[in-house]
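Priority: low. Protein: Nitrate/nitrite transporter. Input follows.
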Amino acid sequence: MTIKPGSKATRIDLFSISSPQMRTFHFTWFAFFLCFFGWFGIAPLMVYVREELHLTKEQIGNIIIASVAITVLARLVIGWLCDKIGPRISYSALLIIGSLPVMGIGLADSYISFLIARLAIGIIGASFVITQYHTSVMFAPNVVGTANATTAGWGNLGGGVTQMVMPILFGFFAAFGFTTALSWRFAMIVPGAALFLMGIAYYFGTQDTPGGNFSDIKESHPKFHGGKKNSLANFASAIADPRVWILFVAYAACFGIELTINNIAALYYVDRFELSPATAGLIAGLFGLMNIFARTLGGVFGDRFGSRMGLQGRVTWLAITLAGQGLFLVLFSQMNVLILAIATMILFSLFVQMAEGATFSVVPFVNRRAVGAVSGVVGAGGNAGAVAAGFLFRGGYSYQEALLMIGIAVVASAAVALLVRFTVEENSAVEEELNLLLRNESV
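Result:
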């Protein structure tokens, strides 16, 4: 049985690119992977930047905040844009535009110019919203959580890989005799160039929906939700739904903390355990590498809980993962022995990424006429959480104290997540859609 091109896929054929759904699956995760590579490529090299630009702890805190601050606004805008013009053009434009500050950060020669470049790079973090939107419109309710979690998780993997690869790229240029100042600058050209090329490939390699591009659908279906009036009305209905903002908080508590750890992990291990930048980068990279399977687990179990307990089951699973994440983060903050710190960091990473997958196993069902708007608002929550956490790291708290406070807040967010509720009608609509798709697949 093959996946029908014109309808949502009810399964994931991982090793296939013959259908538009599976081409989208693979294009989205790889594009997001490269975005993460560009977004956090400078993080493991901050030891060298700190020395060259004579940055203080407060200035580094400001840089951490800048790297995620603009993404809050960018994710809100890109969510609406996906509903309006479609994910294909939105992603292509974002990749190409975002590649420019990634390569351009090498021109920074002061704290202010570096801060501005780091702020501009943050726009590529909006790529997450398009990734989730594109898979949400391509896959059916029984697998959409798994599809969303896997594409996002494999994309987030870029956050771990960059911790390991960027010091190697730095060393490559240094081995050819370039100074430290030039080596970190040349290293950042690599992820920037990759983003630019991916933007071109995404435009020609994907389509907006299983049935075609938005421009084609609008002509044949005037009431299509990407229409001018409908897109604004749907966006308004999304932001008026309290459930969207509860999920905003939940995602702030998981993805927001992952972004924070990506920014500070290498410095944390250098300063706390007196490791070399290369060794610290390798250890910090373990945190991101859990994305190869952990976020997928969050989505898979979200779908399983959903099939057995309805939409409320997805919410229950989300609360469980957030509670586990918070508890292991509290433990990580108290570790004084390197091996124990690494072990608790890995367990914390497992739960933080499962919580992310669990969140976006719920998102596609909150407002099914405005998937982009909901994804944008909830996705912005992740960056809002990172901004809030960033203020703790620039203040008078030690890294250990800041992590402890964040862990306690994450546990509290698990209780907040349980406030999300779905109606009988919403559950019935999901079941009807799935049954229809399964019948069509069997024909």
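The chain has one domain: 20-442. Confidence is low (pLDDT under 50) at residues 225-229.
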